[in-house]
User: Fold this.
Amino acid sequence: MFRHSKAGIALAAIAALTLAACGGGGGSSSNATQAQAVSQADIDKAMSTPTELTFWTWVPDIKKEVALFEAKYPAIKVNVVNAGQGEPQYTKLRTALKAGTGAPDAAQIEFQYVPTFSITKSLVDLRPYGAAGLKDKFVDWTWNQVSGSGGEVWAIPQDTGPMGMLYRKDIFDKYGITVPKTWDEFAAAARKLHAADPKVSMTNLASNQNGVWMGLLWQAGVKPFEVTGADSVKVNLNDDQSKKLGTYWSGLIKDGSVSTDPDFTDQWYQALNRGQYATWLTAAWGPVFLSGSAKSTSGKWRAAPLPQWDAAKPVSGNWGGSTTAVVAGTKNPIAAAKLAEFLNTDPASTKLFATQQFLFPATKALLADPAFVQEKPAFYGGQTVNQVFSGISDTVDAKFQWPPFLDQTVNDWDETVGKSFADKSDTGAALDQWQSRTTTYAKNQGFKVNP
Amino acid sequence: MRRLASSRARRSVDPSATGYLFVAPFLLVFAAMLVLPLGYAAYLSLFQDRLIGGTVFAGLDNYVTALQDDRLLQGVLRVAKFFAFQVPIMLAISLLAALAIDSGLLRFAKAFRLGIFLPYAVPSVVATLMWGYLYGPDFGPVAQLADKIGAAAPKFLSDGWMLSSMANIVTWEFTGYNMIILYAALRAIPHELYEAAAVDGAGPWRTAWSIKIPAIRPALLLCVIFSVIGSFQLFAEPNLLQRLAPSVIDSAYTPNLYAYTLAFTGQQVNYAAAVSFLLGAVIVIASYTVLFLTNRRSKR
Assistant:
């Protein structure tokens, strides 16, 4: 039904002569998404009618979770497709949506991309299918991440990435460094470490990793973006707090006590294995990832919360994590919505995610599950790492918002702020540039931009 | 009976139509894969599709913006610079290799020929990944070797070296390809010319300089034109090296990379189409300039 109304509006426009033009057309079809609640009878009927769903996701072995869903609803068959991880999948999804054919019924979307897809009317509001009632199952801050400004529920949270600090206990011990509780202590430790061994840096702030910067902004309480209406957005990338953060990090980088290698590259993996970084500021999915990527350092790592700006009020940010969303244009919205719901709320399914794919849970139930939080991986010297991150998850600020044009924002960050880190140039000026480039882009895309 | 049938067939088919029949498959693919997409891109470049407000007719606005786009201009100048120093080196090596094989003086000519041509069989993506590893600042073999002898490792992926590092990859990839074209042209030179040269007392170097190279001028020109197109369309190499050196290669490093980023990152498909068309125009002009200059020189 969304397809029809959208096509109708687009037809009125001159541009509707082309298929491709339909994608962004029709600024006022939001009424269509406020569909009426679907009755239980309709749901029962849909779930017992033989249906085939296509589901795009890059989670390895997700067929196990899908099998649980198919066992519960034998009439429904789910084709799991790996269309690439992150950006490649989004590119394919956009292309399929523009072409009007080939898009899946449901897809994995990272939190930060939800607004980028909801602005183009590419996601189905899940409220009519009972999604609003799921709110209490999830960690509080995740719900805002999947909600629209009009209360829409665009996706169901799957996993999260509250940020903490993984550190090399052996390196800290060797140079007499205590685990820093505040960013001031962190900076002092960084300089001490660098003076003792210039080959080791306190941490690596990757010059190509906008996700970490956003997580650090998030922790510092900065609100870089606020969607203030259907066509207006606040862009606030260079305020005093951001500048303070910029000065802090560029200072450490200029000293040489923090490196800026691009992450997830050969060089970065080598550096982790060789002990060139004393800490990795990472998300809750980091511990398992690291234990697979730096096997030679097993037993030497520990986990702690991020250093704080105000030690009395611990706060954290989030980096990464995904959702399951239903893609606009699906012929089976009910079945797709129920798939998204089942995968991410069913106790057996969520447990599989946490134990088989090592996704960090988004549900309160699992975060409180002793079997999960009491796990003692040898890579971290038997520390209950999940418990550390489960505690951090409660401190993530709930009000952080993503822009509806994330790709461009990230690209511009790489070329301004990230570049200033790598070149050891003026980060303050780079933040101004980032602000102006993002603002210009937003205006060109028709947004009203409030500073 | 058979004679009758064949004569009837001959009468019913216009001889010139046979030619078109042979060309038809090509024309079909050409139309479907080149003319139609080009037309569609030209059409797209006349609109502006925004996140808010949808699609509006923009006329030539996208082109006007692109012509004033400093990032696009920088990219074009960068690939022009790349072309100016990479192509002469590559073609010189190709020519030398082709002449060496053609001279018949090499012992393992076939293995030599295959060895030089082999990199062309490696997809440029794989080649770039491989060279990216070799260039690695900490772990790359060159860096490790430099470390062993206590020298500073050359910073292949730094701002100052990047274009040369990329030129090296492209040269490695395409020397063999150009060599084959030149070698094929050398094989087509009539033998009488060599005999005449030998009678006049020319040695192998003199023969190469005065007979072989002038005779394969059209083939050399073809290689140059291919290289113009290749250089201006540089994409896979910067795109992959960007991951290793994100602060050196920005999204407008080459015009093609810029168009790609506009379309797939900024979702400015229409503007990307306009940029692509302008890039096409630049390539046409550059190719024509090369032809014009070389023609004039030969007339002198």
